[in-house]
Design a protein that fits this description.
By secondary structure, this protein is mainly alpha-helical. The protein has one domain. Helices cover 68% and strands 2% of the residues. It has 7 helices and 2 strands. The chain has a two-stranded parallel ribbon. α4 packs antiparallel against α7. 33% of the residues are buried.
Length: 169
C-alpha cells in the first residue's frame, strides 16, 4: 500500500499545468498509460525487494529500477502494439516523468540515461524472443548483472554509453 500513498502524494504535488500534461498523455494513449501504471507498481516492488537500501535513493538500485521500469513498460505495451509504438510511448512517458517531478541536473541525467539504457536493452533482446512471450523474469537477472558493472556518474558531461549509472551517496 506504500506505493499507492507515494503515487497519491506525487499526483497531489503536481501543478494544474503538469497534471494537464499527464491527462493529455492518458487521453492520447489510455491503454498504454494504464499499462505503464501497472509496470510502475511492479517495478517499484521488484526494486524494493532486490535493492532494499538503494532503490529509492540515487544508488545502484535506482539505476536498476529505472532500466527495469522501461523494460516492463515496453514489454506490456508490446503485447498489444508494435515495438516501435511501445518505444515511442515509453520515451514520452519516462521523459514526462522527469519533467513532472524534476530533479537536480545530475540526478536528471542519471535517470534519463538509465531510462534509455532500459529501452535500448529491451530492443536488443527483442529479436531473440517473440514479444508476446516476454516475461518480467527475463529482465531481472540480466539487469542485476548490468547493475554490478554500473558506473558512478560525477558530472553531467560524463558519458557512460552502454552502462547503467548511479550517484555516490
Amino acid at each position: 500500500m506504500k506505493i499507492f500513498k507515494i503515487i497519491y502524494n506525487s499526483l497531489r504535488s503536481l501543478t494544474f499545468e503538469k497534471l494537464w500534461k499527464l491527462i493529455l498523455l492518458f487521453l492520447k494513449h489510455p491503454l498504454f498509460t494504464l499499462i505503464s501504471f501497472y509496470a510502475t507498481i511492479k517495478t517499484f516492488n521488484i526494486a524494493k525487494k532486490e535493492y532494499p537500501k538503494t532503490n529509492s535513493n540515487d544508488g545502484d538500485g535506482n539505476a536498476f529500477r529505472h532500466a527495469l521500469w522501461c523494460c516492463l513498460i515496453m514489454m506490456y505495451c508490446c503485447k498489444i502494439s508494435s515495438p516501435e509504438k511501445s518505444l515511442n510511448f515509453t520515451k514520452k512517458m519516462t521523459d514526462l516523468h522527469e519533467e513532472l517531478f524534476p530533479n537536480k541536473p545530475l540526478q536528471k541525467k542519471m535517470d534519463l540515461h538509465n531510462n534509455k539504457f532500459g529501452m535500448d536493452f529491451f530492443m536488443v533482446m527483442l529479436p531473440g524472443i517473440h514479444r508476446q512471450f516476454f516475461e518480467t523474469s527475463f529482465f531481472i537477472g540480466k539487469l542485476k548483472e548490468k547493475t554490478k558493472d554500473a558506473k558512478v556518474l560525477k558530472d553531467v558531461n560524463d558519458n557512460f554509453e552502454g552502462s547503467l549509472v548511479y550517484l555516490e551517496n
